[in-house]
Amino acid sequence: MVEYSIILPTYNERDNLPLIIWLIVGELQKAGIGDWEVVVVVVVDDSSPDGTADVCRQLQRIYGDRHIRLHERPGKLGLGTAYRSGLEVAKGAFILLMDADLSHHPKFIPQFIAIQRTTQADIVTGTRYKGRGGGVYGWDMRRILTSRVANYLAQVMLSPGVSDLTGSFRLYRRAVFEEVISRVVSRGYVFQMELITRATKMGYTVAECPITFVDRIYGSSKLGAGEVMQYLRGLMLLFWTL
Amino acid sequence: MALPRGKVFVALLSVATVVWLCGLFVLPDGHARFLWRVSPLYVVMLFGTYSLACIGWGLLTFSECPEAAKELEQQVKEACDDLAKKGMRLNLAHS
Ligand SMILES: Nc1nc2c(ncn2[C@@H]2O[C@H](COP(=O)(O)OP(=O)(O)OP(=O)(O)O)[C@@H](O)[C@H]2O)c(=O)[nH]1
Ligand SMILES: [Mg+2]
Prior knowledge:
The complex is a heterodimer. Chain A is of the alpha/beta class. Chain A has helices spanning 16-30, 52-63, 79-89, 108-119, 141-158, 174-181, 189-201, 227-241, and strands at residues 4-10, 39-45, 68-72, 94-97, 123-127, 135-137, 170-173, 206-210, 212-214. Chain A has a single domain (4-241), classed as Spore Coat Polysaccharide Biosynthesis Protein SpsA, Chain A, CATH 3.90.550.10. In chain A, the strands form two sheets. Chain A has a seven-stranded mixed β-sheet, sandwiched between helices. In chain A, strands 6-9 form a two-stranded parallel ribbon. In chain A, helix 5 runs parallel beside helix 8. Chain B is 76% helix and 0% strand. Chain B contains three helices and no strands. Chain B is elongated. The A-B interface holds A 15, 18-19, 22-23, 58-59, 62, 102, 105, 129, 134-138, 144-145, 148-149, 151-152, 155-159, 201-202, 212-214, 217-218, 236, 239-242 and B 1-2, 4-7, 9, 51, 54-55, 58-59, 61-66, 68-69, 72, 75-76, 79-80, 82-83, 86-88, 90-92, 94-95. The structure holds guanosine-5'-triphosphate and magnesium ion. Magnesium ion binds next to loops of chain A.
């Protein structure tokens, strides 16, 4: 039985995908998580022009297609729907979301699982901003300031009781994820923020796990300018409706 | 589910505005009335100070993790070697 499904959305991650899969396999084996029998990685690729899907097929030959599922979509349909499509393929009782760009290190997956087991929380969310052992690498002063202000605004306007709202490294009980994501309307950075805030307002319990976040080394950022305005608009909408 | 924060905020703001306007009507000219008239300004300043303090605290306690980047860099090398053994060549020239 599949216990944990890792949904890995990819868009032009041909360099990162083999590395992240290698790290996931290694870390799960190190932690002795069911000889990684109980884990399935679902790669949701939006027909990346760089051939990420071919790289994924190569990885399936190496690691076996029982553990790595490739879900291909006809074009760049966005992250929010990538998680939703991934969920249809993923069979796990728990759903883990992470980025494929090596910003999220798989060594934290066993920690998430351990925290979930001891706290019985509905959601375990990675936090870069609280607790020992967490942090960020590779942001300049402007990026740090932006994130601090954005986080402060969200804390004041939503008080979600979670320290890292825009992070996308999280473990969910499947039913909780299905229920909450079906109500989420936001996109971009606000998507993760709405997901976690909605979940807390619906009474689901959230535990936090300090994580390190290393800004991407390979490949390029997909989320570009105009982001700040989108964030503020999204925040106002949640302020008014959530 | 609780009321959205924004709606609570607007409701409270309206009540406060009404109270403030009433005060302006009933208070006689003088020092007290002047203080009452500028009191919203104080509230705004107080909130601004609080906000700056929070953001400042966030900046001060912001932690960096160069070790994590080092560890990752090392592991990327290991991964490349190991994957090459498994028959997969990576070409990470551009960084
Ligand atoms: N399937 C799919 N995956 C996506 C899409 N956009 C982004 N991704 C993937 O989602 C993850 C997070 O996206 P990133 O581009 O890293 O977003 P970010 O971390 O906010 O920005 P960076 O600063 O570039 O790291 C990565 O694994 C991307 O490959 C999309 O439209 N479709
Ligand atoms: Mg990223």
